[in-house]
Amino acid sequence: xxxxxxxxxxxxxxxxxxxxxxxxxxxxxxxxxxxxxxxxxxxxxxxxxxxxxxxxxxxxxxxxxxxxxxxxxxxxxxxxxxxxxxxxxxxxxxxxxxxxxxxxxxxxxxxxxxxxxxxxxxxxxxxxxxxxxxxxxxxxxxxxxxxxxxxxxxxxxxxxxxxxxxxxxxxxxxxxxxxxxxxxxxxxxxxxxxxxxxxxxxxxxxxxxxxxxxxxxxxxxxxxxxxxxxxxxxxxxxxxxxxxxxxxxxxxxxxxxxxxxxxxxxxxxxxxxxxxxxxxxxxxxxxxxxxxxxxxxxxxxxxxxxxxxxxxxxxxxxxxxxxxxxxxxxxxxxxxxxxxxxxxxxxxxxxxxxxxxxxxxxxxxxxxxxxxxxxxxxxxxxxxxxxxxxxxxxxxxxxxxxxxxxxxxxxxxxxxxxxxxxxxxxxxxxxxxxxxxxxxxxxxxxx
Length: 447
Known about the structure:
This protein is an alpha/beta fold and 447 residues long. Helices cover 36% and strands 22% of the residues. It has 14 helices and 16 strands. It has helices at residues 27-32, 36-43, 57-71, 96-108, 127-141, 212-234, 261-276, 280-289, 301-315, 319-328, 336-339, 346-356, 396-401, 408-415; strands spanning 8-16, 20-23, 47-50, 81-85, 117-121, 147-155, 168-178, 183-193, 199-200, 209-210, 253-256, 365-372, 376-384, 404-405, 429-435, 441-446. The strands form 4 sheets. It has a 9-stranded mixed β-sheet, sandwiched between helices. It has a 3-stranded mixed β-sheet with strand order 3-2-14. Helix 3 (57-71) crosses helix 4 and helix 6 (212-234) crosses helix 7. The protein is globular and about 65 Å long. It starts with 7 loop residues before the first strand and ends with a strand. 46% of the residues are buried. Residues 1-5 have low confidence and may be disordered.
């Protein structure tokens, strides 16, 4: 299980989320006429992280980066690249990373990051994965190359809209280098892309346009397509399942983009349905719920799609699926249930969930299924490093307990930008001071 000298991957992870949250089961559920049980069990969201008046995607990115540097005793001269994936950009032209570097230089000194390159990538929720691919290739080119990928977003939907209860906010910073202590990435990857209107945010709009059912189906189609592409690339390489086994059997953990935890269950059901056909276990599944629907048995694609969705819901109640899902997928949803959707960072919040709960063990294999609306998907894989025990925990569960719960009124004021002061004055963090007459944003370190 020794690592080759050019082994590249994720060495450490830092997570930042706001100190405010809104419970979905209290005033919010009552005011929106929603059943709390539907939100907790049916959607999987218990709490949503809410950014304060002084917070935006750039401050969260800077706070996550500072924690990552301090955890690993890194200085500005150690980091050659800071690539940011986000769909919560704070400027239409200026890269968010320059704002982030400016904030960090409040700590480390002006000009201390002058030799670090930075770029901002946008591709909905998959952007950070493309950033990770790029920085990993660069880190592997030369000994000593160390880069950081930051996924940072605020998921915001209109008040009283169907997507409101899937909001969230946070940033995840990934340390990328050779000889990583967490995840050694494989060379193979699978991709899927097509033009869709499932989720988008037109210029000038603060909230996204979501075509709900269509968006869910695009997620499933893209992940299935990218996984099939990955299988074609990885078979005979890092993944060699024996006869009678599925490619998913080779993974101890299957991490997925988490718009809300229940969507991960739908995606896993779709994936396992695709993977298990023709295997012995599928005979047992068919004995319980019947054969898969076939397109020719229905008058049109809409009817076939509805029948397929209902079939996958029945499949998700079989013992075979429940065992596989509980072991391989569900543990990665731990943090998302209490933070909500953080767009580009949701997949990597799943990685932090596994690390924080002690589920990552040396030698285990992980599959990463990344999705971005619009739409694009990437599937890649890696192995848990033998040095995983050297990575200290982050105290994330304790930090979640220490947050302050917002009233519905204060949440709505913050959501609409109608609150003039922060609910919790900033302290020990980077903070947005405001914008000048040109619209330029100014930040500082709040002691």
